[in-house]
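Let us work through a complete example step by step.
Step 1: write down the sequence.
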Amino acid sequence: MPVFIFLVFVLAAVLWVLLSFVFRPLGRLVGRVWKDAKDAMDEEDSSEDDTANKN
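Step 2: predict the structure and record it as tokens.
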């Protein structure tokens, strides 16, 4: 039974290392999408402010 627990910890550590290579590019992609959405919302807000000031 202690060998099984040791193997579970080893497998978890290996899985952690392998998934870290997946999460970095995934995080970069999510960050880029978040920034693009925020920029689009800011641009929309500024255009709404410009039309409100003209009236």
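Step 3: interpret the result. The chain has one helix and no strands.
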